[in-house]
Amino acid sequence: MAVKETTSNKTQEKARTKSKAQKAKSPEKQLKVKLVRSLIGRPKHQHEVVKGLGLRKINSEATRKDCPEIWGMINKVRHLVEVEELEKK
Question: Per the record, which residues fall in region Disordered (predicted)?
Answer without folding.
Answer: 1-30
